[in-house]
Specification:
Number of strands: 6
Strand order of the largest sheet: 3-2-4-1-5-6
Shape: globular
CATH architecture: 3-Layer(aba) Sandwich
Largest sheet: 6 strands, mixed
CATH class: Alpha Beta
Order of helices and strands: EHEHEHEHEE
CATH superfamily: Phosphoglycerate mutase-like
Length: about 180
């Protein structure tokens, strides 16, 4: 398989944690359970990223740390980019365009609406939604087949041309 991008929305955060502000909100119990669950799914599917970038917000940091732990990777593989904190689609495309050419599987951990907008930009509107119309719920993973060059992304040449290979939500992985 060629280049792939994995988008991971941060796991569920706590609104009543006493955090100073939005940036500092930690994960709640559900988030602490789902973040490693999504890491295990990636490991089971042998989707091991060779480049990881995350928003530095506390909830994203805790999510990516749980995922890399499940993947058997080290925290020093994670790059934190301030622009990914609530970054819009254009900002996320710019971040992707800066990936080294050698990256075959990139992981981006961030927030909505930017991640959802990026997914729709890359893959078009034909992405599966929940009953209430949501796409990337907390801790959801989108796996996307990407074009050959990361640098081409910010030039608009791949709008709607990428293939969504999987969209996995934590609830779908719960035992029934």
């Amino acid at each position: 398989m060629g280049r792939q991008l994995i988008l991971l929305r941060h796991a569920k955060s706590s609104w009543d944690s006493g955090a100073k502000g939005d940036f500092d909100r930690p994960l709640n119990k559900r988030g602490l359970r789902n973040a490693p669950r999504m890491g295990r799914w990636l490991k089971e599917k042998k989707l091991i990223p060779d480049h990881i970038v995350s928003s530095p917000a506390r909830r994203a940091e805790l999510t990516v740390n749980a995922v890399v732990r499940e993947l058997g990777l080290t925290k020093d593989m994670v790059g934190f980019d301030d622009a990914l904190y609530l970054g819009d689609c254009h900002t996320l495309l710019h971040a992707l365009a800066s990936f080294p050419d050698t990256v075959q599987c990139g992981l981006v951990v961030g927030h909505n609406p930017g991640l959802e907008d990026l997914l729709l930009y890359l893959c078009g509107n034909a992405v599966p939604r929940t009953r209430d119309g949501k796409i990337l719920v907390t801790a959801a993973i989108a796996r996307i087949a990407m074009p050959d060059g990361w640098r081409d992304l910010h030039q608009g040449s791949c709008q709607g041309s990428c293939d969504l290979l999987a969209l996995v939500r934590p609830k779908e992985l719960e035992p029934r």
